[in-house]
Amino acid sequence: MIDLSDLALRLEAASDDRALAVLGFRDDDRAEVRLAIEAALHEPERLAEIQTLAERLRSAIGRIESPADSLELPPADSTWRGIGVVPMLALLAVADDVRSFHRSRGISTAVSDCSLSDLGQQAWVHRRTFGAFGLHTYEWMATAFSGNLYWLGRLQFNLVEHDGEWMLSTHIPEIGPLTPESVDDSFRQASAFFAEHFPDYPTRLFYCGSWLLDPQLAAVLKPESNMVRFQKRWTPTGEIGPADEDAVFFVFRRRGEFDRSTLPRETSLQRAILDKLDSGGHWSSWGGTLEKERT
Ligand SMILES: CC(C)(COP(=O)(O)OP(=O)(O)OC[C@H]1O[C@@H](n2cnc3c(N)ncnc32)[C@H](O)[C@@H]1OP(=O)(O)O)[C@@H](O)C(=O)NCCC(=O)NCCS
After folding, report:
1. What is the value of pTM for the model shown?
2. Under a CB-based contact definition with an 8 Å cutoff, are residues 42 and 48 in contact?
3. E-strand spans in the chain?
4. What per-residue confidence (pLDDT) applies to 76?
5. How far is ligand 1, taken at its centre, from the CA of residue 268, in Å?
6. What is the residue with the minimal CA distance to atom 28 of ligand 1?
């Protein structure tokens, strides 16, 4: 149980500038986190809210079988210092617990730090999307902070179970081009990493569920583009569902209400996404698998 004085100590330690940099927070966001922590420390009601969330997050650490998505975290408090800021402080409060779990699996500090730095990356994505401090993707962060997300080179991976089989689900953060060499290297790292640190979850396949696997993309982008070459690696397992919002979010960093005619049409991808939507078409997310031995 994290009592209130322990929580205050955790939050004070988390507001250290270097600690925030290690967690991937960029300058503007580090300043905002520090202000939020300072404010929370003087608001008993807020501390109680963070405490409840932190306890729930902590109970999920290391529970690979029960994904963090099933934690049913309450909706982000959108009025207090920005969307998802209360959950962000709860995540910060349990970061050391996740690190302990990583150590218990023999995972290096470098991989541990890199994996948890998705928190700062998501704060940056939030700022790019809404022009403000926050963390609207905090439910996704619950997976990383359950000890089931590893950032290994270009890609991130977590263990997922499909039809009784464990697979390495693959995620593509926005950190630059998706070159085939960087993807090969990441797959190699992931195969070795999970075999060493999670031998109790043997895997045969990588899995990817993403708008990047929509076959319509291959029809509109150059065949030699990184995205088409990435898509071609996977054996499709079928359509998962609508992804118009995902495509717009990942390409334009927009969510909710906005005027589509104001979005840029500078790249072939931007034009392709908008042309399809403007003509009444849709994007979908697709699943695909890839045998580890073939990477
Ligand atoms: C996936 C990603 C890394 C691919 O980037 P990349 O390696 O540069 O892609 P490609 O080389 O295949 O680009 C093909 C074209 O699309 C453009 N493009 C690629 N990603 C773009 C993006 N996010 N926004 C705008 N244009 C983009 C390229 O500029 C290029 O345009 P051009 O033909 O006019 O020169 C990038 O789209 C990205 O960071 N996306 C956000 C993360 C994401 O979607 N993750 C999956 C979540 S399910």
Report:
1. 0.95
2. no
3. 150-152, 155-162, 165-171, 205-210, 235-242, 284-291
4. 58
5. 9
6. 267
161 in a structural domain: no
Residue at 182 is within a domain: no
Whichever domain contains 232, its CATH number is 3.40.630.120
Ligand 1 pocket: which of 225, 249, 273 to mutate (most atoms within 8 A of CB): 225
pLDDT along the chain (295 residues), means of 10: 93 97 97 97 94 92 82 68 93 98 98 98 95 91 93 98 95 97 98 98 98 96 97 97 96 89 96 96 98 85
CA distance 54 to 68: 13
Residues 131 and 222 occupy one common structural domain? no
Q: How far is the CA of 108 from the centre of ligand 1 (A)?
A: 31
Give the rounded distance of the alpha carbon of 246 from its chain centre. Answer: 14
Q: Whose CA is nearest to atom 37 of ligand 1?
A: 251
Measure the CA–CA gap between 185 and 166, rounded to whole angstroms. 21
Of 228, 209, 229, nearest to 219 by C-alpha is 228
Supply the range of the domain harboring residue 267. Answer: 211-294
Which tokens is 235 given?
Answer: 């054996």
Rounded to the nearest whole angstrom, what is the distance from the C-alpha of residue 250 to the centroid of ligand 1? 9
